[in-house]
Design goal:
By secondary structure, the chain is an alpha+beta fold. It has 15 helices and 14 strands. It has 4 domains: 1-99; 101-311, Nucleotidyltransferase, domain 5, CATH 3.30.420.10; 317-410, RRM (RNA recognition motif) domain (Alpha-Beta Plaits, 2-Layer Sandwich), CATH 3.30.70; 420-496. The protein has helices spanning 3-9, 13-26, 35-42, 58-65, 71-96, 103-112, 117-120, 193-196, 210-220, 232-239, 264-272, 285-302, 369-378, 420-451, 458-496; strands spanning 131-132, 147-157, 162-171, 176-181, 188-190, 226-229, 241-242, 246-248, 322-329, 348-351, 359-365, 382-385, 391-398, 404-410. Strands 2, 3, 4, 5, 6 and 8 form a 6-stranded mixed beta sheet that branches. The protein is globular and about 100 Å long. The N and C termini lie far apart (86 Å).
Length: 498
């Protein structure tokens, strides 16, 4: 029995059907031609009239795949088969014995079942440079609780792609397993030093390549080790590595107010109780890998089943006169963006530092906050919220070439958040309103008590006395509230010099 026969025997119909679909997308042809040509030859009764692979038998799917004999085709099919088989095995293990799942395996499944998983982890793993890790022959690999956390730093290359320049890996004890600078081996357009902390000088004399890192990771992940990371898909895409058993820390915590994808910095503050890094400081690859592992260990130990609430960050008034234009294709010139807004708005564009890959971002700066809000409201496009709860619209623009391009225009303040310039005034007004209401209530209760006349009916008198006592008690509580509110008012007034 050939190696391909063994793989096919061990693979289920669903996986085989997916692989056949892949061959169709790639236009691959075996000894009997493509999929439909093969069906016309193989099935005299139905032929290609029933071409949906998922509706064909395992024997038919396997027979088609066996028509591929070219070495390159076989490598491609083996890689795709390995990838689908790995993920299928992980999911099936969870379904077959959910009560026996370890906490680590539950987090793996939580990641795989997340609504954003199909979108974020749809990789071109069939490509030549991609590596698909193996889970091993036994079920022991599928049940392993060993974990390793990873983080990478990437630079923007002149061809528009991203390349890894640093990789750090730690185990569950936070012991460093890999800490390497990587030579991108192609021209770099932007080192993003303010973010990565890496410059051209740091990479002088570095011989470690992406292929070297891939080999190291294959060894580290052998035996079914679970790979941990925050927004791990970004790292795996840059590393060109597919691994089935993963935990994405941006997926495993419940977030209040919708499917917001939290940042590593926010999670560290809310879950671990400390700041990941100072504001404006560059990333530290090793710190980020350790932070991701700590988050997983905290989730395993404490559960964190409740929804995490991230407070809306105050946006300085100077930032509220801006709109962010992001996910702009690199072939769209900045001049072409001027047509998005009416001419009466004076706009200055300022590049955003963390532009990534084939997209870039700019700020549109207006005369004031009101003008920015008006410009956003006039935009044609479906309004939605970004991962941070800020309103944004998907906008289509016409280019001078006659083509169209899509991009997002986003406000700086979260939906439902008050304008920062007026928030203090509203707080002060609210405190004063509550104080005045409490004072009026106090006066009304005094008058009520003075006007209360004794009744001949003893039951009525008793009821009135009880009511008066209750009102007195409530009055005391209101007095305490007034004192506290006055303290708040005084503190706010002193703080802001009002």
């Amino acid at each position: 029995m050939s190696a391909m026969d063994k793989k096919i025997d061990a693979t289920e119909k669903e996986v085989l059907a997916e692989i056949v679909k892949w061959t169709q997308k790639q236009g691959m042809k075996g000894a009997k031609g493509g999929w439909k040509e093969f069906l016309d030859f193989y099935d005299e009764r139905l032929g290609s009239s029933l071409s949906d692979p998922s509706r064909r038998t395992v024997d038919t799917l396997a027979a088609f795949l066996k028509t591929f004999t070219n070495d390159e085709d076989l490598k491609f099919l083996a890689k795709v088969m390995q990838c689908h088989s790995n993920r299928k095995a992980v999911v099936e293990l969870s379904k077959s014995s959910p009560d026996l799942e370890s906490p680590q395996q539950k987090l793996v499944c939580l990641t795989l079942e997340h609504p954003q998983y199909p979108l974020n982890y749809s990789f071109p793993f069939h490509s030549e440079e991609w590596v698909v890790t193996k889970l091993g022959k036994s079920s022991k690999a599928l049940k392993s609780n060993a974990m390793a956390a990873i983080d990478c730093e990437m630079v923007l290359c002149e061809d528009g792609t991203e390349a890894v320049v640093k990789v750090c890996v730690v185990d569950h004890n936070l012991e460093v397993k890999l800490n390497e600078l990587v030579n991108p081996n192609k021209a770099v357009a932007d080192y993003r030093t303010d973010i990565t902390g890496i410059s051209a000088k740091d990479l002088c004399g570095i011989n470690c390549s992406l292929a070297d890192v891939q080999e190291s990771l294959k060894k580290l992940l052998s035996g079914g080790t679970i790979l941990v990371g925050h927004s791990l898909s970004n790292d795996l895409r840059a590393l060109k590595l597919y691994h089935a058993r993963i935990i994405d820390t941006s997926f495993i915590f419940k977030i209040l107010d919708g499917p917001r994808k939290p940042s590593l910095k926010d999670l560290c503050k809310s879950v671990l109780g400390h700041e990941l890094r100072k504001e404006g400081a560059p990333h530290n690859c090793l710190d980020d890998a350790c932070a991701a592992m700590k988050l997983v260990l905290a989730k395993i130990e404490h559960g964190f089943e409740h929804a995490i609430v991230f407070p809306h960050k105050d946006v300085p008034e100077t930032e509220q006169d801006k709109l962010l234009l992001h996910a702009i294709p690199v072939d769209v010139p900045k001049e072409g963006l001027l047509n998005i807004f009416p001419k009466e708005f004076k706009i200055e564009f300022k590049a955003k530092e963390n532009a990534r890959g084939r997209k870039y971002s700019v700020f549109a700066i207006f005369k004031n906050r009101q003008k920015a809000n008006e410009a956003f409201e006039r935009l044609q496009g479906d309004e939605q919220q970004d991962s941070g709860g800020r309103p944004q619209k998907l906008v289509t623009i016409q280019l001078s070439t006659g083509l169209t391009a899509n991009l997002y225009v986003r406000k700086m303040v979260c939906a439902g958040s008050p304008d920062q310039s007026t928030s203090l005034e509203k707080k002060l007004a609210k405190v004063e309103e509550l104080i005045n209401k409490s004072k009026k209530r106090k006066t009304d209760m005094v008058i009520t008590e003075e006007l209360a006349e004794p009744k001949t009916n003893s039951d009525q008198c008793t009821n009135h006395v009880k009511e008066i006592k209750r009102l007195k008690q409530e009055l005391c509580q209101k007095d305490d509230e007034i004192q506290n509110m006055q303290k708040i008012l005084s503190a706010l007034t002193r703080k802001h010099g009002l």
